[in-house]
């Protein structure tokens, strides 16, 4: 398992270098053509000699780049052979197809064939009007993925199988059970408040850094490249949408540390698991506040993404622009898990589309929706520095 991961990582690194070399080679070819054109305008022997020297230098550099590219492509091919050999030697067990081993490999190979053939080979790949659907397990990381922004780990995710529907939400409350004696009638309990939240799955489009020219002749680990880039686009998209929902919370502004403590202590019920989501500018301001003894007031907390907590609550920083504009000191305080829900269609599609630069480019599509589910679970506001 570890060897396969290492080989895959090496293939991706070499594939990235090949793409860089291809760009350099194209640039050198353009420069060579421009320099050769100067020969027609040369009027003296000195001018001809100068152009000749430049052309020789460009040719030497071009040959060096092409040789390096050829060597890398051979190394990638050798690494691919290692992976193929490992797959052949991997032990098989009765019923392993049911656990996903062989079946997952077949799906993976079908996806690679679809991408390499620019959408012509579709055997083993389910297609829709959007494009080819990529099974989630094909892009599943070999190890637990560490999200770029830990805030996303707080989100309540519900996997759905339809494009729209309603989801029942039970709000947090102070309801408790009542003691009942033997043979006594059941006491009347408080009514449970369940609300229905409507969701409608939306489609989000992105582009993968794979052009037709970049994969026609190279043996890249396509699934590895797709996995990394789709994961990044997926997280950035969801983070922006989550921030938009958090901004719809009831507005409660705060002045200084005391204002923030008022929100934590009395503005949001204690039944909620509260955190602070603050802009980078606001965290910068909080981080500089000192007490009368000159000691910084934020508390060290190794469990918090920032390494600090406020009144024992973790602090999650996000870019200023997600909550407003550069320099804005904005925040959401509350329980992310209860405040919103992400409805995930669990469906990824890819399709080759026309591109003004590459002719064809691989586009990706993700489908999900984010909705507010418990408005009482948090507040949004603007922070103002105050003398402590």
Q: Describe the largest sheet.
A: 8 strands, mixed
Mean pLDDT: 79
Strand content: 15-25%
Instruction: Please write the CATH class name of the largest domain.
Output: Alpha Beta
Kindly name the structural category: alpha/beta
Q: Shape, please?
A: extended
Total number of helical segments?
10
The first-to-last residue Cα distance is 55 Å
Tell me the number of strands.
Answer: 15
Helix fraction bin: 40-55%
The helix-strand sequence is HHHHEEEEEHHEEHEHEEEHEHEEE
Low-pLDDT residue intervals, each spanning 5 or more residues: 92-100, 141-145
Using only C-alpha atoms, the radius of gyration works out to 29 Å
CATH topology annotation of the largest domain: phage-related protein like fold
